Amino acid sequence: MNFYKHHIGDYAKKTPHLSIVEHGAYLLMLHFYYGTEAPLPKGRALYRLLRADSKIDRDAIDSVCRQFWTETPTGFINGRADEEIAAAVHQREVNRELGKLGGNPYLKEQYNEPGDLYVADIGNGRVKVGITGVGWAKRAYGLSKTYGSRPVALAVVRVENMGLSEKAVLDRFARFASGEVLTISGADREQLILFSLSLGTPNMPQVGAAIHQPNRVANVVANVVANTQATAEASISPIQTPDVREDSVEKDSTDANASKNAIPVDPPDPRKQLWDLGVSLLGESARSLIGKGIARVGESKVGSVLGDMAARPTADPKAYFVAATTPRQDDPARFRTA
Asked: Which of 293, 300, 276, 291 is nearest to 226 (CA)?
């Protein structure tokens, strides 16, 4: 045990006559007993364990043993401490079984309704799988209090049944799980993200919504997505005849003369912006990864994914990109040809 309940009132009633040295001996013995959940050694082994260097220390240990501990063939035991240890062992078993089921079943029942399923990196190679009906932002704040650092969303998906969706993820990746926390990396983590995204509609924060990213980055992302979509629409739009009015002729002539002296500026290339953004987020070596993503779902979708990633950084950007640009089985984009 790393923790035990020390009832000050009960302890004070039974030990008012002890000396300072005896109090120290008793508490040290309790600490070792709870920590090992095993009988304490006898004789000189116990003296060495408690670092009893003087006769006063050893006499104090002997006195405490006579009053509060029971000697057995295997060592000294304490009845009250045994009750606390038994209760803690039972609770550990209950928690372990509940963890296999995805948490307290009585609390989970109320979440069998629409909401968000999330997969979040909580550091040290651990991933938290959970559900929330209040939105990712509020849930992330709660997780930061629990785990000591701000979690990074790997996937946030809107699902019809939160409880069943969470159970599906935990069942599929049970070999990595301890309760709702998974120790998972590499290709297995990519599969976890991909499977979670397949259960519903991605509900990641919108472009520019994250407060931790500079506005300049958000604006660039929005422009890339908008320009990519506009380019696609322009390629299929019919040619339209401009509406020329008489009162605009003079103004157009003036503008034309002024533009003769202007320095020509090439319009931004949305495709280049898309690739530059992708390289900045995924690395120079990820160009083939970006190209494969475009081949699977098209430039517009890839631009949206990169926008989400820029607005909300992920712990494993390559894994998230692959998962987010892999069409689900029911997604018409999977039939797209290059």
From this structure: 300
- Could you tell me which residues are beta bridge partners of residue 75? 72
Mean of pLDDT over the chain = 77
pLDDT digits (tens, 9 = 90+) for 217-233: 445 445 555 555 555 45
Torsion of CA 282, 288, 291, 295, to 10 degrees: -120
With contact defined as beta carbons under 8 Å apart, do 265 and 194 qualify?
no
Report the alpha-carbon distance of residue 68 to residue 52 in Å, rounded: 18
What DSSP string describes 119-183? EEEEETTEEEEEEESS-HHHHHHHHHHHHSS--EEEEEEEES-HHHHHHHHHHHTGGGEETTEEE
Q: What is the pLDDT of residues 113-164, one digit of tens each?
A: 888 899 999 988 899 998 888 888 888 888 888 887 788 888 898 888 888 8
Q: Residue 286 — left, alpha, or beta (φ > 0 → left; ψ -120 to 50 → alpha)?
A: alpha
Q: Are 166 and 157 in contact (CB under 8 A)?
A: no
